[in-house]
Every structure is written in C-alpha cells, then in structure tokens.
DNA sequence: TCTGGGGTCCTAGGACCC
DNA sequence: TCTGGGGTCCTAGGACCC
C-alpha cells in the first residue's frame, strides 16, 4: 500500500436535491425530496433539511410524505444531473488520468498518477482547491476524502459530509477503523451486518480479532478474505479508469400489478426494444438475454438464455425475451418487468449475417417527444412533470410546481433570481412550453467565456482550466446578470477544510456560514430576505387559469397521480 | 400508499470436456 | 470393468452499491 494519502474520493453532497435547490431559489434551505412520485416510488435523494425529518434514500415515498408532508417532492432529472456531473468529472480529469467514476456524483482519483500530490500536504492542497473549483463551476458542494487506499478514502469522504474534507494520515488507519461499526465497511450491508452481529461481531476491531478463517466460515470465501483485509486496513485495489460495462438492462415497476398475460407480453416487447436502444446507443451487443419478473408478492425471478453470438437486433432480443417469458408463471400478477443483455461485445456477429442477408434491422421510434406540434398529443397533467423547467412567452423561465384538474402551476424563477412567484395556467395554455435547465452558475457579462460568475477559487482554477470548462449540454451560453448563484457568490470559503487530519466526523463546531445551523448543515443558505418570501403556507386551491396567486407562496394543489408538489414546506428549518 | 432503477460481484449446481 | 478430478460455461439467485 502506498505511504501517502494520495487517493482522493469525491462525493457530491445530496447531489440530486442540491442540484434542484441550486436550480430553484425558492427551495434553498428547504426540505426537498427527489424520487419517484408514483404510488410505488422511492426516495432517490433527500436534502439535508429533509433528512432532519428522517427521510432518507431508498425509503418508500409514502413514508417520506408522512414524515415530511411539507417538503417539496420532485422527479429526478437525470439529463440535468448528468450535465453537472460531466463538469465535475472534467475537473477530476484535470487532476489525473486515473479517474474512476462510481456514479454521477462519486469518483476516485489517483493523485499520484497525475503527479499532483506526493505527500499529505500536497494532497490536502489539491483537495481544498478541488472543492473550491467545484463550487465555482457548478455552484454545488462536494465532500472529499483523502487516504492511502480506496476504502479509506471513501470512509474519509463519508466522515467529511457535508461540505468538508477529511484526510486520513497513513499510520493512523487501524486506530481510526477499530471502533467503527462493521457496517461502515463497503460491502457490508444489512444481511452481512446481521450475520456478523449474531456472531458477536459489531466493530471493525472485532472483525480483525475474529481471524480470517472464522470470517470465511461465516460469510464465505471471497467475502471473508475481503472483510479480513479491510479490517486490517489492507486495500491494494488500484484506481481504474474506463471500466467497460458488463451488462445493459431496463426495467419498469407498474403502478398497479399487471394480470393480463397479453399485456405482460407487450410490456416485455417494449422493454426489449428499449434495452436494445440503450445497447446500440453504447455501441454494444451481447450474447445473454435476461428476463426479470417481480411478482405481486415481491418475489423476484430471472430467466436467461445465451445465444450463439452477440446481437443488437431488436427482433432477436424480443424473441428471446418472449421465449423466456413463456416459462414463467405470472398468475397473481406482476409488479415489475425487466429485460437485460449481458456477455457484451463491441461487435456483432449476427449483424454481419443480417447485413449479408440484406435483412433490415429496424427499431421502432421512441416516444415522439420531438414530433411536430400538430402530431403531438395535447398536453395533459402528466405532460407537465413536477420539477421540470418550462418557459412562458410572457413570464419567462420557470418550473412546474404541480399539476392537476387541468391546471399547471408554475413558479417563475431562475438559478440566479430571487425566489419567484407562482402562476397557474390551463395545461393546454399555448404560451407555455417545456424548456431546458439553465446553467447553475452564471457567466460574468463581458468576462472571458467560461469564467465562473462566483469568482475564481483562492488559488485560481486548476491548470487544465476547470474554469474554462463550459457547462456541457446547456443551451444559451453566456447570459446576462451579475453575481453568481445566491449563496455561492463572494469569496469561496474553506472553513470546513480546517478539520483536516484526525477530523471529528461531522463536527458541527466548524465555523462558517455553511454550518451556521444544524438543520441547514451543508445546504447553501438562501439569500437574506428569501425567508420572507415563504408565507403562512396556507393551503390554497389553484387559481383560475392565468390568474396570479396573490402571494408568492406556492399554491397547493389537490394530489393527483400525475405527481403534485405538496405545499412547500413552512415547518422545516 | 411497502419496497426504484441501474449496475457489480459472488455462490452453487449441473453440463460438458479432457 | 462401481465411478476421478479439473476447468469452463451456463443458469438462478442473492447481497450490495448509488
């Protein structure tokens, strides 16, 4: 294992929820829950304000609504998050060729490979500057862990949350790990945790004391060896860039169980097409087709079939999936169906045959999102999804706060505006149209293109030009208006980095405005006066079409299955 | 209002081959 | 002709992660 803490782990704080708060000024400092809004939805991310109520990832949405009835509930906008993620990953790649993304909001970086750091001090400097650059470029905060191994860097970033940096000094690893719960270790989930607990093993120290043979006996060969190594803080896994995909899959959970066998078959065909579309989009083909069925009682089964050669032919995948379905009993109903392809290759033998035979390989078009207006179905509540951006010919840019009863409620605000007003329209209002998200950080007018409005980091942007990294995937380019994102403007502070080595996890005593209140820990504070924009929260019906709410507070709409935003929180901190 | 969607890795049994 | 021992592939399920 290396002797310097030069493996960096970055984890963005409450990423989806923070991105929504940065995009929507009226949500800053408030409980925000991002996830599926249907009857079977779960929480993807809860803002720190929502976590105060006990809301957390993977929790059923119904439970979240009971715990935090006044939170704002939004559907995830992955395209938006991906564009932010690309900006962050570009900053990381400027540090090292060895960047290993784990998800949209998380990655390992080998700083030694990038010759950016060789000891604790240089590593810490890189981490401090990275956090500043991330905030300058995206307006969001991320937590950084630095250590001599991937496992410890990840544990460090977890301890740094939110909005902090923790460096684990080489030599202190075992002392630091010892008292921690076994559940802290990556790979120890509920099942393994219970298993170990029943064997009297609660802490990492007890794991090490149990010995390797005992652990292998308890949890199996691979897991046992891995667990013992982790308990001794041994982790030699290298940071690996470019890990090719091993499978591609799509699945849908239905709001209501499907009983009709015919309908089940049709859904499987649709999923097969969607899966192939994704496969082709990635330039891949695969040999093994997998069908997944979750029954009414939540029991899940998979059936798979391996072809003689890889394919990306929708007809071939459809037929295989249909054959697999034939062998499955669906009486009682199914709640989820999925189709996947594994055994991936980046060429396809069957395609060569198909081309040789002159057989066209066609895929039905996806939903006609880009179809001309006259072909598109008329807008309905479902068309205006909670949280999505819209533009009104008269009122400008805003986002859907809720819809129902033929009306859609829009809050007109932009990332760099004050919290905005709410107006209600008919769902088929001709002046209203869907819009792309706006950049979270505004460019200074007249400034160099790509210069962050929030100002440069104390040490300036990293050499490869993070500040020169234009936001990808956003239309519009430079926009007028000065100042950065509210709360991110002004000098970038590094207060949270003060508690570097040997930091106390989640030390609330760290000075600085971002930890000013426990409830808002890590959340960017709304600008002064924002609080005044939120009124009594009295439940108001949607106004008449086109009518402006008399108060800037959100109007409350009746719940509808199209996903209404509840009245926005007035009770959260 | 009880449980998403996209992945990874491991285990274990049987087939099959040498 | 009473019976081995690997290795690899396929299939099914489960734990875990974000």
Automatic annotation (TrEMBL):
Cofactor(s) the protein needs: Mg(2+)
PROSITE patterns: UMUC
Annotated segments matching region Disordered: 367-387, 413-573
One matching Pfam family: IMS_C
Any one GO molecular-function label of the UniProt entry: DNA-directed DNA polymerase activity
SUPFAM superfamilies named among the record's database cross-references: DNA/RNA polymerases (SSF56672), Lesion bypass DNA polymerase (Y-family), little finger domain (SSF100879)
Reaction(s) the record says it catalyses: DNA(n) + a 2'-deoxyribonucleoside 5'-triphosphate = DNA(n+1) + diphosphate
Presence of the UniProt keyword Isomerase in the record: no
Keyword vocabulary terms for this entry: Cytoplasm, DNA damage, DNA repair, DNA replication, DNA-binding, DNA-directed DNA polymerase, Magnesium, Metal-binding, Mutator protein, Nucleotidyltransferase, Transferase
Sequence ranges assigned to domain UmuC in this UniProt record: 7-189
Location in or out of the cell: Cytoplasm
Signal peptide positions on this chain: none
Active-site residue list: 106
Residues engaged in binding Mg(2+): 11, 105
Enzyme Commission number, as recorded: 2.7.7.7
Start-end of Gly residues biased regions: 474-487, 532-544
Gene3D superfamilies linked: 3.30.70.270, 3.40.1170.60, 5' to 3' exonuclease, C-terminal subdomain (1.10.150.20), DNA polymerase, Y-family, little finger domain (3.30.1490.100)
Polar residues compositional bias, start-end: 559-573
Family per record: Belongs to the DNA polymerase type-Y family.
Alphabetical list of NCBIfam families matching this protein: PRK02406.1, PRK03348.1
Function: Poorly processive, error-prone DNA polymerase involved in untargeted mutagenesis. Copies undamaged DNA at stalled replication forks, which arise in vivo from mismatched or misaligned primer ends. These misaligned primers can be extended by PolIV. Exhibits no 3'-5' exonuclease (proofreading) activity. May be involved in translesional synthesis, in conjunction with the beta clamp from PolIII.
Protein name: DNA polymerase IV
């Amino acid at each position: 294992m290396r002797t310097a803490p030069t493996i960096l782990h970055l984890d963005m704080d409450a990423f989806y929820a923070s991105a929504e708060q940065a995009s929507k000024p009226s949500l800053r400092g408030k409980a925000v829950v991002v996830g599926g809004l249907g009857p079977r939805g779960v929480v993807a991310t809860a803002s720190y304000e929502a976590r105060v109520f006990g809301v957390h990832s993977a929790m059923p949405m119904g439970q979240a609504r009971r715990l935090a009835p006044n939170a704002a509930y939004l559907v995830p906008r992955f395209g938006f998050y991906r564009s932010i993620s690309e900006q962050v990953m570009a900053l990381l790649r400027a540090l090292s060729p060895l960047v290993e993304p784990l998800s949209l909001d998380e990655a390992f970086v080998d700083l030694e490979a990038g010759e950016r750091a060789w000891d604790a001090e240089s590593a810490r400097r890189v981490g401090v500057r990275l956090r500043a650059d991330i905030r300058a470029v995206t307006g969001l905060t991320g937590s950084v862990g630095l250590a001599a191994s991937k496992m410890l860097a990840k544990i460090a970033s977890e301890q740094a949350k939110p909005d902090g940096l923790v460096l684990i000094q080489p030599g202190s690893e075992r002392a630091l790990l010892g008292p921690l719960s076994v559940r802290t270790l990556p790979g120890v989930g509920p099942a393994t945790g219970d298993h170990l607990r029943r064997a009297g093993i609660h802490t990492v120290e007890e794991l090490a004391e149990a010995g390797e043979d005992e652990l292998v006996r308890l949890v199996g060969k691979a897991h046992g060896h891995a667990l013992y190594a982790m308990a001794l803080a041994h982790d030699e896994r290298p940071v690996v860039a470019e890990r090719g995909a091993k499978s591609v899959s799509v699945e849908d959970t239905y709001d209501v169980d499907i009983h009709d066998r015919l309908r089940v078959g049709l859904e499987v065909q649709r999923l097969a097409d969607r899966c192939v579309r994704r496969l082709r989009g990635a330039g891949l083909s695969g040999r093994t087709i997998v069908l997944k069925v979750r029954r009414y009682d939540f029991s899940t089964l998979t059936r798979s079939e391996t072809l003689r050669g890889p394919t990306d032919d929708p007809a071939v995948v459809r037929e295989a999936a249909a054959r697999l379905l034939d062998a499955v009993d669906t009486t009682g109903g199914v709640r989820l169906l999925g189709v996947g392809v594994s055994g991936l290759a980046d060429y396809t033998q069957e395609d060569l045959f198909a081309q040789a035979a002159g057989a066209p390989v066609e895929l039905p078009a996806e939903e006609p999102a880009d179809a001309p207006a006259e072909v598109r179905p008329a807008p309905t509540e479902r068309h205006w999804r909670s949280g999505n951006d819209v533009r009104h010919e008269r009122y400008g840019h805003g986002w859907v706060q809720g819809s129902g009863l033929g009306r859609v409620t829009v809050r007109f605000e932009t990332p760099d505006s004050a919290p905005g007003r709410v107006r209600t329209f008919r769902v088929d209002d001709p002046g209203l149209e869907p819009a792309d998200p706006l950049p979270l950080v505004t460019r200074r007018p007249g400034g160099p293109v790509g210069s962050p409005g929030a100002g440069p980091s104390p040490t300036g942007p990293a050499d490869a030009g993070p500040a020169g990294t234009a936001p990808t995937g956003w239309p519009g380019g430079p926009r007028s208006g000065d100042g950065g994102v509210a709360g991110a403007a002004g000098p970038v502070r590094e207060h949270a980095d003060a508690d570097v080595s040997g930091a106390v996890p989640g030390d609330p005593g760290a000075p600085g405005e971002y930890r000013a209140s426990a409830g808002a820990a890590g959340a960017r504070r709304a600008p002064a006066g924002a609080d005044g924009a939120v009124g009594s929260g009295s439940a108001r019906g949607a106004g008449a079409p086109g009518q402006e709410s008399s108060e800037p507070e959100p109007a409350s709409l009746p719940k509808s299955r199209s996903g209404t935003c509840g009245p926005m929180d007035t009770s959260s901190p």
